[in-house]
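Dear H.,

Thanks for agreeing to be a second pair of eyes. The structure we're designing against is below in token form, covering all 237 positions.
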């Protein structure tokens, strides 16, 4: 599906956590959009600054939901796009281009899947995970989600509900700066891979987030024996 200009309205903004927001854009023209799980849209920032700016946001809602685009964003107070997106009123018209991007699930693979995210890197992964499970993928699918602190965690109810519905889906949260009392995984996502990637030749990985984590994790997966074509990633910067 080629990218098109999209007119939408910000229908709803949910404040999930201090600096994390879920945004729902209702499509106006076209009224429906076909896209593949993992793709993103480029949103036009109309904050009054004469310098035109587009910023990319991954689509979290599943491809089956064609009339709305949902995404999850982190507010960067020093940025331009996120201060605008987190303060405009619900009902504001928002222009975007999409769908864009080549980050997509290999549906021909017979391998187990590990999804790895840090922070809002979860956005396209939720779309891919729900899409695969709804399409009947019954192979093991594991999500590893990294944060610094316990108070940064969000969407646990959503992940719990997916895990309850689909027994082949499991997830773990790892904290790089946990309190002593944290019962979950500890350390960076790369440390988890070092200790838990048991069948690299029978696993495909999808990685998304900001910074060195993405390339470090991809390189580590290959170093541990995963074929390059099974290592997929999207970088936010
Ligand atoms: C393909 C693609 C998909 C993306 N999808 C999302 C998404 O679904 N949700 C989302 O929040 N962002 C996403 N981003 C990042 C987004 O495009 C913007 O860069 C981000 O929202 C910051 O924009 P800004 O203008 O507010 O700040 P900027 O001035 O552009 O950003 C300042 C700095 O903040 C850092 N930064 C950017 N994004 C993040 C983040 N998510 N978490 C922590 N630090 C960050 C970067 O190092 C950047 O240099 C995506 C980027 C790409 C390339």
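And this is the sequence the design step returned. I haven't edited it by hand at all.
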């Amino acid at each position: 599906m080629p990218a098109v200009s999209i007119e939408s309205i910000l229908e709803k903004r949910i404040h999930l956590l201090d600096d994390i927001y879920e945004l729902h854009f209702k499509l106006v023209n076209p009224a429906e959009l076909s896209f593949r799980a993992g793709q993103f849209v480029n949103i036009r920032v109309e904050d009054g600054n004469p310098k035109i700016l587009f910023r990319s946001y991954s689509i979290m809602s599943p491809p089956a939901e064609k009339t709305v685009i949902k995404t999850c964003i982190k507010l960067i107070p020093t940025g331009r796009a996120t201060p605008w997106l987190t303060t405009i009123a619900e009902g504001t018209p928002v222009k975007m281009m999409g769908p864009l991007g080549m980050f997509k699930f290999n549906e021909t693979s017979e391998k187990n899947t590990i999804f790895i995210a840090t922070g809002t890197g979860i956005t396209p992964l939720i779309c891919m995970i729900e899409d695969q499970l709804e399409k009947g993928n019954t192979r093991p699918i594991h999500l590893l989600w990294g944060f610094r602190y316990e108070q940064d965690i969000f969407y646990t109810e959503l992940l719990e509900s997916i895990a309850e519905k689909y027994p082949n889906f499991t997830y773990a949260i790892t904290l790089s700066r946990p309190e002593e009392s944290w019962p979950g995984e500890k350390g960076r996502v790369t440390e988890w891979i070092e200790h838990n990637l048991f069948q690299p030749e029978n696993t495909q990985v999808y990685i998304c987030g900001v910074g060195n984590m993405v390339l470090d994790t991809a390189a580590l997966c290959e170093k541990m024996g995963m074929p390059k074509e099974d290592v997929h990633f999207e970088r936010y910067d």
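Two observations from my side: The first strand starts at residue 4 and ends at 17. The chain has two domains: 4-100, 112-235.

Warmly,
E.
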